């Protein structure tokens, strides 16, 4: 069986609807999410988070209903967003296009800036928070534009980056070992 989005629908909205569906055999309620979705992250067994390029952070439940959690004015986010993840404490972490990291305490605005990037992150492509609360970002370095995996401590005070030979496209944790997969 081949599933294709209805004419005029973006693939992202169609994918979000499929993921929000209670079962793969039944396509759930299709919901319109304003803007261009740039990242999705599982939140629980019944919902996932999304961020848009335009600065919207939201949640979609298995019922298919989107909830806007924060936007550019309530965030406040001053640049386009690139990533979203949950933290071990239940906060929502958000990465912007400039490499700045924000935390939405208990999942609601206003956002608290955890890390202000000056030297390490350029063109971030993926974002996650590990079990210890560390922020992991894939990006290129600002000076040499070499691809890297960036590590930022939970409080944003310490950071490091590791150059990689091949471009990291996405990162996640191994569900069996907890190790980082590229």
Radius of gyration: 16 Å
Question: What is the share of helical residues?
Answer: under 10%
Number of helices: 1
Q: Structural class of the secondary structure composition?
A: mainly beta
Query: What's the β-strand tally?
Result: 14
The portion of residues forming beta strands comes to 35-45%
What about the largest sheet? 4 strands, antiparallel
Order of helices and strands: HEEEEEEEEEEEEEE
CA-CA gap between termini: 30 Å
Overall shape:
globular
Task: Output the strand order for the largest sheet.
Answer: 1-2-3-4
Instruction: Please tell me the overall pLDDT.
Output: 81
The stretches of 5 or more residues where confidence is low (pLDDT under 50) are 1-11, 20-26
Q: What order do the helices and strands come in, and which of them pair?
A:
Layout: H1 11-20, E1 37-44, E2 47-52, E3 57-61, E4 66-70, E5 81-86, E6 92-96, E7 101-104, E8 112-115, E9 122-129, E10 135-140, E11 147-152, E12 159-163, E13 172-173, E14 180-181
Antiparallel strand pairs: 1-2, 2-3, 3-4, 5-6, 6-7, 7-8, 9-10, 10-11, 11-12, 13-14
Could you characterize the architecture of this molecule?
With 182 residues, the chain is mainly β. It is 5% helix and 40% strand. The protein is built from one helix and 14 strands. The strands form four sheets. Strands 1-2-3-4 form a four-stranded antiparallel β-sheet, with helices on one face. The longest helix is centred in the N-terminal third of the chain and has 10 residues. The protein starts with 10 loop residues before the first helix and ends with a strand. The N terminus is likely disordered.
């Amino acid at each position: 069986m081949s599933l294709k989005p209805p004419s005029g629908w973006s693939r992202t909205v169609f994918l979000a609807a499929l993921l929000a569906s209670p079962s793969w055999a039944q396509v759930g309620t299709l919901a319109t999410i304003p803007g261009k979705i740039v990242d999705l992250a599982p939140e629980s067994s019944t919902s996932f988070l999304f961020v848009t390029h335009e600065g919207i952070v939201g949640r979609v439940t298995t019922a298919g209903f989107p909830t806007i959690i924060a936007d550019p004015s309530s965030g406040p986010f001053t640049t386009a967003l690139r990533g979203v993840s949950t933290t071990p404490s239940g906060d929502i972490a958000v990465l912007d296009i400039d490499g700045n990291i924000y935390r939405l305490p208990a999942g609601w605005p206003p956002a608290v800036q955890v890390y202000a990037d000056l030297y390490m992150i350029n063109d971030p492509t993926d974002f996650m928070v590990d079990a210890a609360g560390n922020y992991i970002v894939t990006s290129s370095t600002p000076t040499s534009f070499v691809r890297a995996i960036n590590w930022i401590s939970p409080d944003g005070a310490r950071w490091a980056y590791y150059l990689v030979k091949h471009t990291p496209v996405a990162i996640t944790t191994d569900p069996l070992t907890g190790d980082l997969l590229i």
